[in-house]
Design a protein that fits this description.
The chain is 81% helix and 0% strand. It contains four helices and no strands. Helix 1 packs antiparallel against helix 2, helix 2 runs antiparallel to helix 3 and helix 3 packs antiparallel against helix 4. The chain is elongated, with a radius of gyration of 16 Å.
C-alpha cells in the first residue's frame, strides 16, 4: 500500500512541476491550443492523484482493491497525460501516437468503474 502512496505523491509532485513549467516556461513556446492541451494533461493527472490518495487511505477497500484501482489509474495517467506531454513537449507527432491518449482515458474510466462496482457490491451486503 505504501508504494502506491509514494508513487501517487511522486505523480502529484510531478503534476505541480509540470503545471508550473507549462504556466511559465511554455507560455512563449506553445500555441494557446497546445497550452490548453498540456493543461488538460496536468489537470487530469492531479485529479487522479487526489483520488488515488483517498483510495489508498480509505479503509473500506481491501489491499487488492487498492492495488487494482491504483494500477488502473497509474497506467491511465501514464498513457493519457504522458502521451499529451510527449506530443506537446517533444513534438512527437500526434498522428503517430493518436491511440495512446484515448487508451489512457479508457484505463481511467475502468478505474472509476471498478470503484463503482466495489461500492455497489458493498451496498448490497448491507
Amino acid at each position: 500500500m505504501f508504494k502506491n502512496i509514494i508513487f501517487t505523491c511522486f505523480l502529484g509532485m510531478l503534476a505541480i512541476i509540470l503545471g508550473a513549467f507549462g504556466a511559465h516556461a511554455l507560455k512563449e513556446t506553445l500555441t494557446a491550443d497546445q497550452l490548453l492541451s498540456f493543461e488538460t494533461a496536468v489537470r487530469y493527472q492531479m485529479y487522479h492523484v487526489i483520488v488515488l490518495l483517498i483510495v489508498n487511505m480509505y479503509e473500506g477497500f481491501s489491499s487488492k482493491q487498492k492495488n487494482t484501482i491504483s494500477y488502473l489509474f497509474f497506467i491511465g495517467i501514464l498513457l493519457f497525460s504522458g502521451s499529451i506531454y510527449l506530443i506537446q513537449l517533444i513534438s512527437v507527432s500526434a498522428k503517430s501516437i493518436w491511440f495512446v491518449t484515448p487508451f489512457g482515458g479508457l484505463f481511467l474510466i475502468i478505474g472509476w468503474v471498478s470503484m463503482i462496482a466495489i461500492f455497489i457490491k458493498k451496498s448490497r451486503k448491507r
